[in-house]
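Regression check, magnesium ion case 356:
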Amino acid sequence: MSKVWVLGHGQLGAMLQHAAMPLSVEVIPVDIDSEQLPDLQADDVVTAEREQWPTTPVTEKLAKHPNFINLDVFGRLADRLTQKQLLDDLGLATSPWKLVDDTLAAEQVYAELGERALMKRRTGGYDGRGQFWLKQSENTQIPDDWRNEAIVEQGINFDEEMAIVGVRDREGKKFFYPLTLTLQLNGVLTASVAPLARLDKLQPKAEAMLGKLLDGLDYVGVMAMECFRVGDELIVNELAPRVHNTAHWTQAGASVSQFESHIRAVAGVPLAKPQVKGLNVMINLLGTPHDERWWAISGAEPYWYGKEVREGRKVGHITFTHSGDKKLIQGLDELKALLPERYEEVIDWVETAVQS
Ligand code: ADP
Ligand code: MG
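Current build output:
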Protein backbone atom coordinates (compact mmCIF):
# COMPACT_ATOMS: atom_id res chain seq x y z
CA MET A 1 0.00 0.00 0.00
CA SER A 2 1.50 3.36 -0.90
CA LYS A 3 1.86 5.94 1.77
CA VAL A 4 1.25 9.70 1.52
CA TRP A 5 2.35 11.92 4.38
CA VAL A 6 0.52 15.23 4.73
CA LEU A 7 2.31 18.18 6.27
CA GLY A 8 -0.36 19.48 8.65
CA HIS A 9 -3.15 17.75 10.53
CA GLY A 10 -6.17 20.00 10.13
CA GLN A 11 -9.45 19.22 8.42
CA LEU A 12 -7.93 19.17 4.93
CA GLY A 13 -5.52 16.42 5.91
CA ALA A 14 -8.37 14.49 7.50
CA MET A 15 -10.49 14.82 4.37
CA LEU A 16 -7.58 13.64 2.21
CA GLN A 17 -7.22 10.63 4.48
CA HIS A 18 -10.93 9.90 4.28
CA ALA A 19 -10.92 10.11 0.47
CA ALA A 20 -7.86 7.90 0.07
CA MET A 21 -9.24 4.84 1.82
CA PRO A 22 -10.99 3.29 -1.22
CA LEU A 23 -7.81 3.85 -3.27
CA SER A 24 -5.84 1.72 -0.87
CA VAL A 25 -3.51 4.61 -0.28
CA GLU A 26 -2.57 5.28 3.31
CA VAL A 27 -2.66 9.00 4.07
CA ILE A 28 -1.02 10.14 7.28
CA PRO A 29 -1.54 13.75 8.36
CA VAL A 30 1.39 14.97 10.44
CA ASP A 31 1.30 17.41 13.34
CA ILE A 32 4.18 19.76 12.52
CA ASP A 33 4.80 20.40 16.22
CA SER A 34 4.98 16.75 17.14
CA GLU A 35 8.07 15.52 18.94
CA GLN A 36 7.81 12.23 17.14
CA LEU A 37 9.40 12.32 13.70
CA PRO A 38 7.58 10.63 10.80
CA ASP A 39 9.08 7.31 9.81
CA LEU A 40 9.52 8.12 6.12
CA GLN A 41 10.42 5.37 3.68
CA ALA A 42 12.11 5.94 0.34
CA ASP A 43 8.99 5.16 -1.73
CA ASP A 44 6.64 7.31 0.33
CA VAL A 45 5.21 10.55 -0.98
CA VAL A 46 4.87 13.85 0.88
CA THR A 47 2.26 16.53 0.29
CA ALA A 48 0.89 19.43 2.35
CA GLU A 49 -2.47 20.77 3.40
CA ARG A 50 -1.10 24.29 3.93
CA GLU A 51 1.05 26.54 1.76
CA GLN A 52 3.38 27.73 4.45
CA TRP A 53 4.96 26.29 7.54
CA PRO A 54 7.53 27.13 10.19
CA THR A 55 10.72 25.14 10.43
CA THR A 56 10.26 22.42 13.01
CA PRO A 57 12.00 19.05 13.33
CA VAL A 58 8.97 17.49 11.59
CA THR A 59 8.74 19.94 8.67
CA GLU A 60 12.50 19.80 8.20
CA LYS A 61 12.40 16.06 7.89
CA LEU A 62 9.42 16.09 5.51
CA ALA A 63 10.97 18.80 3.32
CA LYS A 64 14.13 16.73 2.90
CA HIS A 65 12.26 13.83 1.39
CA PRO A 66 12.91 13.56 -2.37
CA ASN A 67 9.24 12.74 -3.02
CA PHE A 68 7.84 15.92 -1.50
CA ILE A 69 5.59 16.80 -4.42
CA ASN A 70 5.68 20.42 -5.68
CA LEU A 71 8.03 21.40 -2.85
CA ASP A 72 9.39 24.48 -4.64
CA VAL A 73 5.89 25.71 -5.51
CA PHE A 74 4.76 26.20 -1.93
CA GLY A 75 7.11 29.01 -1.03
CA ARG A 76 6.54 30.68 -4.36
CA LEU A 77 2.78 30.83 -3.91
CA ALA A 78 2.84 31.45 -0.17
CA ASP A 79 4.54 34.81 -0.79
CA ARG A 80 2.12 37.17 -2.51
CA LEU A 81 5.04 38.98 -4.16
CA THR A 82 6.32 35.91 -6.00
CA GLN A 83 2.75 34.74 -6.63
CA LYS A 84 1.94 38.04 -8.36
CA GLN A 85 5.21 37.87 -10.32
CA LEU A 86 4.30 34.38 -11.50
CA LEU A 87 0.87 35.56 -12.68
CA ASP A 88 2.48 38.47 -14.52
CA ASP A 89 5.16 36.23 -16.06
CA LEU A 90 2.47 33.88 -17.40
CA GLY A 91 0.43 36.81 -18.69
CA LEU A 92 -2.60 35.97 -16.53
CA ALA A 93 -4.93 38.83 -15.61
CA THR A 94 -4.63 39.85 -11.98
CA SER A 95 -5.31 43.09 -10.14
CA PRO A 96 -2.49 45.59 -10.83
CA TRP A 97 -0.15 45.70 -7.88
CA LYS A 98 3.00 47.20 -6.36
CA LEU A 99 5.44 46.18 -3.67
CA VAL A 100 5.06 48.23 -0.48
CA ASP A 101 8.69 49.20 0.06
CA ASP A 102 10.39 51.89 2.14
CA THR A 103 9.63 54.69 -0.24
CA LEU A 104 6.17 53.98 -1.64
CA ALA A 105 3.81 56.83 -0.83
CA ALA A 106 0.05 56.45 -0.58
CA GLU A 107 -0.33 59.26 -3.15
CA GLN A 108 1.64 57.17 -5.64
CA VAL A 109 -0.66 54.21 -4.95
CA TYR A 110 -3.75 56.33 -5.61
CA ALA A 111 -2.21 57.78 -8.77
CA GLU A 112 -1.21 54.40 -10.19
CA LEU A 113 -3.77 51.95 -8.83
CA GLY A 114 -6.82 54.10 -8.22
CA GLU A 115 -8.69 55.52 -5.25
CA ARG A 116 -9.21 52.17 -3.47
CA ALA A 117 -6.30 49.84 -2.97
CA LEU A 118 -5.84 46.82 -0.76
CA MET A 119 -2.60 46.08 1.04
CA LYS A 120 -2.02 42.41 1.71
CA ARG A 121 0.70 40.94 3.89
CA ARG A 122 3.10 39.01 1.70
CA THR A 123 2.83 35.92 3.87
CA GLY A 124 0.62 34.47 6.55
CA GLY A 125 -2.68 36.15 5.64
CA TYR A 126 -5.78 33.98 5.26
CA ASP A 127 -9.56 34.30 5.66
CA GLY A 128 -9.27 38.03 5.04
CA ARG A 129 -6.61 38.50 7.71
CA GLY A 130 -3.50 40.49 6.93
CA GLN A 131 -5.32 43.08 4.81
CA PHE A 132 -5.53 46.86 5.02
CA TRP A 133 -7.56 49.14 2.75
CA LEU A 134 -6.08 52.39 1.49
CA LYS A 135 -8.81 54.89 0.55
CA GLN A 136 -8.03 58.14 -1.14
CA SER A 137 -11.31 59.66 0.04
CA GLU A 138 -10.11 59.15 3.61
CA ASN A 139 -6.53 60.07 2.75
CA THR A 140 -5.33 56.79 4.29
CA GLN A 141 -1.53 56.58 4.60
CA ILE A 142 0.66 53.49 4.69
CA PRO A 143 1.46 52.50 8.28
CA ASP A 144 5.17 51.87 8.86
CA ASP A 145 4.70 48.28 9.95
CA TRP A 146 3.30 47.37 6.52
CA ARG A 147 6.48 48.40 4.73
CA ASN A 148 8.61 45.65 3.19
CA GLU A 149 6.04 43.11 4.27
CA ALA A 150 3.16 43.72 1.93
CA ILE A 151 2.00 44.23 -1.60
CA VAL A 152 -0.76 46.64 -2.52
CA GLU A 153 -3.25 45.95 -5.25
CA GLN A 154 -6.01 47.76 -7.03
CA GLY A 155 -9.44 47.43 -5.42
CA ILE A 156 -11.55 45.55 -7.94
CA ASN A 157 -15.24 46.36 -8.30
CA PHE A 158 -16.09 42.81 -9.18
CA ASP A 159 -19.51 41.49 -10.13
CA GLU A 160 -18.98 38.31 -8.15
CA GLU A 161 -16.31 35.95 -6.85
CA MET A 162 -15.69 32.43 -8.05
CA ALA A 163 -13.02 29.78 -7.98
CA ILE A 164 -11.86 26.90 -10.10
CA VAL A 165 -10.04 23.81 -8.90
CA GLY A 166 -8.05 21.58 -11.23
CA VAL A 167 -5.80 18.56 -10.97
CA ARG A 168 -2.74 17.54 -12.97
CA ASP A 169 -0.84 14.27 -12.96
CA ARG A 170 2.86 13.63 -13.57
CA GLU A 171 2.33 13.16 -17.30
CA GLY A 172 0.54 16.48 -17.57
CA LYS A 173 -2.99 15.12 -17.87
CA LYS A 174 -5.47 17.57 -16.38
CA PHE A 175 -9.08 17.68 -15.20
CA PHE A 176 -11.05 20.61 -13.90
CA TYR A 177 -14.06 21.01 -11.69
CA PRO A 178 -16.71 23.52 -12.75
CA LEU A 179 -16.38 27.15 -11.72
CA THR A 180 -17.77 27.57 -8.24
CA LEU A 181 -19.60 30.73 -7.25
CA THR A 182 -18.45 31.82 -3.80
CA LEU A 183 -19.69 34.08 -1.06
CA GLN A 184 -16.99 35.67 1.08
CA LEU A 185 -18.18 37.48 4.18
CA ASN A 186 -15.56 39.51 6.03
CA GLY A 187 -12.98 37.79 3.83
CA VAL A 188 -14.08 34.28 4.84
CA LEU A 189 -15.61 31.77 2.44
CA THR A 190 -19.10 31.19 3.78
CA ALA A 191 -21.02 29.47 0.99
CA SER A 192 -20.51 28.18 -2.53
CA VAL A 193 -22.63 26.95 -5.43
CA ALA A 194 -21.63 24.89 -8.48
CA PRO A 195 -22.12 24.36 -11.33
CA LEU A 196 -24.18 27.21 -12.74
CA ALA A 197 -25.17 27.10 -16.40
CA ARG A 198 -24.72 30.84 -16.69
CA LEU A 199 -21.01 30.42 -15.89
CA ASP A 200 -20.45 27.75 -18.55
CA LYS A 201 -19.20 30.32 -21.02
CA LEU A 202 -16.40 31.28 -18.63
CA GLN A 203 -15.34 27.69 -17.98
CA PRO A 204 -12.97 27.33 -20.98
CA LYS A 205 -11.27 30.60 -20.04
CA ALA A 206 -10.87 29.54 -16.41
CA GLU A 207 -9.50 26.13 -17.43
CA ALA A 208 -7.03 27.71 -19.82
CA MET A 209 -5.77 30.07 -17.11
CA LEU A 210 -5.38 27.44 -14.41
CA GLY A 211 -4.05 24.97 -16.97
CA LYS A 212 -1.30 27.41 -17.87
CA LEU A 213 -0.33 27.66 -14.22
CA LEU A 214 -0.38 23.91 -13.66
CA ASP A 215 1.75 23.26 -16.74
CA GLY A 216 3.99 26.26 -16.13
CA LEU A 217 4.84 24.96 -12.66
CA ASP A 218 4.98 21.32 -13.76
CA TYR A 219 2.56 20.89 -10.92
CA VAL A 220 1.20 17.56 -9.67
CA GLY A 221 -2.04 17.44 -7.67
CA VAL A 222 -4.89 19.83 -6.96
CA MET A 223 -4.60 23.60 -7.20
CA ALA A 224 -7.24 26.26 -6.64
CA MET A 225 -7.54 29.60 -8.41
CA GLU A 226 -9.78 32.27 -6.88
CA CYS A 227 -11.12 34.83 -9.34
CA PHE A 228 -13.13 37.97 -9.64
CA ARG A 229 -15.63 38.14 -12.46
CA VAL A 230 -15.82 41.57 -14.04
CA GLY A 231 -18.27 41.37 -16.91
CA ASP A 232 -17.04 38.50 -19.08
CA GLU A 233 -13.48 38.75 -17.77
CA LEU A 234 -11.83 36.70 -15.06
CA ILE A 235 -9.17 38.31 -12.90
CA VAL A 236 -7.08 36.01 -10.73
CA ASN A 237 -7.32 36.97 -7.09
CA GLU A 238 -5.11 34.31 -5.53
CA LEU A 239 -3.85 30.77 -5.86
CA ALA A 240 -3.65 27.89 -3.41
CA PRO A 241 -1.37 24.90 -4.09
CA ARG A 242 -3.63 22.44 -2.31
CA VAL A 243 -7.18 21.21 -1.88
CA HIS A 244 -9.45 24.13 -1.23
CA ASN A 245 -12.61 25.04 0.67
CA THR A 246 -14.35 26.23 -2.53
CA ALA A 247 -14.41 22.62 -3.78
CA HIS A 248 -15.58 20.84 -0.64
CA TRP A 249 -18.90 20.29 -2.42
CA THR A 250 -17.13 17.73 -4.63
CA GLN A 251 -17.20 15.25 -1.72
CA ALA A 252 -20.92 14.77 -2.22
CA GLY A 253 -21.40 16.21 -5.67
CA ALA A 254 -18.74 14.70 -7.92
CA SER A 255 -17.82 11.13 -8.81
CA VAL A 256 -14.23 11.92 -7.82
CA SER A 257 -13.79 14.54 -5.10
CA GLN A 258 -10.98 17.08 -5.09
CA PHE A 259 -9.44 15.15 -2.20
CA GLU A 260 -9.44 11.90 -4.13
CA SER A 261 -8.09 13.66 -7.23
CA HIS A 262 -5.21 15.11 -5.24
CA ILE A 263 -4.27 11.77 -3.71
CA ARG A 264 -4.56 10.00 -7.06
CA ALA A 265 -2.24 12.55 -8.64
CA VAL A 266 0.44 12.57 -5.95
CA ALA A 267 0.34 8.81 -5.36
CA GLY A 268 0.42 8.01 -9.07
CA VAL A 269 -3.05 6.42 -9.24
CA PRO A 270 -4.69 7.15 -12.64
CA LEU A 271 -6.86 10.26 -12.67
CA ALA A 272 -10.51 10.06 -13.66
CA LYS A 273 -12.70 12.79 -15.08
CA PRO A 274 -14.98 13.97 -12.28
CA GLN A 275 -18.65 13.58 -13.17
CA VAL A 276 -20.72 16.23 -11.47
CA LYS A 277 -23.91 14.86 -9.96
CA GLY A 278 -26.20 17.87 -9.87
CA LEU A 279 -26.36 21.41 -8.58
CA ASN A 280 -24.27 21.62 -5.44
CA VAL A 281 -24.33 23.90 -2.46
CA MET A 282 -21.87 24.13 0.41
CA ILE A 283 -22.27 26.12 3.58
CA ASN A 284 -19.38 26.56 5.96
CA LEU A 285 -20.05 26.12 9.65
CA LEU A 286 -18.18 29.03 11.22
CA GLY A 287 -18.05 28.98 14.99
CA THR A 288 -21.35 27.11 15.02
CA PRO A 289 -21.88 24.54 17.80
CA HIS A 290 -22.51 20.95 16.68
CA ASP A 291 -26.21 20.19 16.17
CA GLU A 292 -27.38 16.61 15.58
CA ARG A 293 -30.51 17.84 13.86
CA TRP A 294 -28.41 18.81 10.80
CA TRP A 295 -28.10 15.12 9.98
CA ALA A 296 -31.89 14.82 9.72
CA ILE A 297 -32.30 17.57 7.12
CA SER A 298 -33.41 16.10 3.82
CA GLY A 299 -30.60 16.14 1.30
CA ALA A 300 -28.01 17.56 3.72
CA GLU A 301 -24.58 15.98 3.99
CA PRO A 302 -22.90 17.50 7.03
CA TYR A 303 -19.17 17.08 7.62
CA TRP A 304 -17.96 17.87 11.14
CA TYR A 305 -14.24 18.46 11.69
CA GLY A 306 -14.14 17.50 15.36
CA LYS A 307 -12.47 20.75 16.40
CA GLU A 308 -13.17 22.89 19.41
CA VAL A 309 -15.76 25.53 18.50
CA ARG A 310 -14.42 29.09 18.63
CA GLU A 311 -15.93 32.25 17.22
CA GLY A 312 -15.59 32.35 13.44
CA ARG A 313 -13.57 29.12 13.28
CA LYS A 314 -14.26 26.67 10.46
CA VAL A 315 -15.67 23.68 12.32
CA GLY A 316 -17.54 21.88 9.56
CA HIS A 317 -19.53 22.27 6.38
CA ILE A 318 -22.82 21.07 4.98
CA THR A 319 -23.35 20.19 1.34
CA PHE A 320 -26.50 19.56 -0.65
CA THR A 321 -26.66 17.96 -4.06
CA HIS A 322 -29.73 19.02 -5.96
CA SER A 323 -31.37 16.51 -8.21
CA GLY A 324 -33.75 18.90 -9.89
CA ASP A 325 -36.78 19.15 -7.63
CA LYS A 326 -37.91 21.57 -4.94
CA LYS A 327 -36.16 19.65 -2.17
CA LEU A 328 -33.04 21.76 -2.22
CA ILE A 329 -34.85 24.92 -1.20
CA GLN A 330 -36.80 22.93 1.41
CA GLY A 331 -33.59 21.54 2.84
CA LEU A 332 -31.97 24.98 2.88
CA ASP A 333 -34.98 26.43 4.67
CA GLU A 334 -34.80 23.65 7.24
CA LEU A 335 -31.13 24.42 7.76
CA LYS A 336 -31.79 28.14 8.07
CA ALA A 337 -34.13 27.45 10.99
CA LEU A 338 -31.33 25.56 12.79
CA LEU A 339 -28.46 27.97 12.22
CA PRO A 340 -27.76 31.26 14.03
CA GLU A 341 -29.53 34.34 12.68
CA ARG A 342 -26.40 35.59 10.91
CA TYR A 343 -26.85 32.72 8.45
CA GLU A 344 -30.06 34.21 7.11
CA GLU A 345 -28.24 36.32 4.52
CA VAL A 346 -26.03 33.35 3.64
CA ILE A 347 -28.95 31.01 2.92
CA ASP A 348 -30.74 33.81 1.07
CA TRP A 349 -27.62 34.28 -1.09
CA VAL A 350 -27.51 30.54 -1.81
CA GLU A 351 -31.21 30.35 -2.66
CA THR A 352 -30.84 33.27 -5.05
CA ALA A 353 -27.64 31.86 -6.56
CA VAL A 354 -29.09 28.41 -7.29
CA GLN A 355 -31.93 30.02 -9.18
CA SER A 356 -29.66 32.40 -11.09
P1 ADP B 1 -7.38 35.36 1.79
O1 ADP B 1 -6.09 34.62 1.74
O2 ADP B 1 -7.65 35.95 3.11
O3 ADP B 1 -8.52 34.57 1.21
P2 ADP B 1 -7.79 37.10 -0.50
O4 ADP B 1 -6.73 37.75 -1.28
O5 ADP B 1 -8.57 36.02 -1.17
O6 ADP B 1 -7.12 36.60 0.85
O7 ADP B 1 -8.80 38.20 0.02
C1 ADP B 1 -9.95 37.88 0.79
C2 ADP B 1 -11.16 38.58 0.20
O8 ADP B 1 -10.94 40.00 0.14
C3 ADP B 1 -11.48 38.19 -1.24
O9 ADP B 1 -12.22 36.99 -1.29
C4 ADP B 1 -12.27 39.40 -1.69
O10 ADP B 1 -13.59 39.36 -1.19
C5 ADP B 1 -11.54 40.55 -1.01
N1 ADP B 1 -10.49 41.10 -1.91
C6 ADP B 1 -9.25 40.62 -2.06
N2 ADP B 1 -8.55 41.31 -2.97
C7 ADP B 1 -9.37 42.26 -3.43
C8 ADP B 1 -9.24 43.32 -4.40
N3 ADP B 1 -8.09 43.53 -5.08
N4 ADP B 1 -10.32 44.12 -4.62
C9 ADP B 1 -11.47 43.92 -3.95
N5 ADP B 1 -11.66 42.97 -3.02
C10 ADP B 1 -10.63 42.14 -2.75
MG1 MG C 1 -8.94 34.06 -0.75
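Comparison notes: The radius of gyration is 20 Å. Residues 226, 238 surround magnesium ion (ligand 2) (CB under 6 Å). No diff flagged against the previous build.
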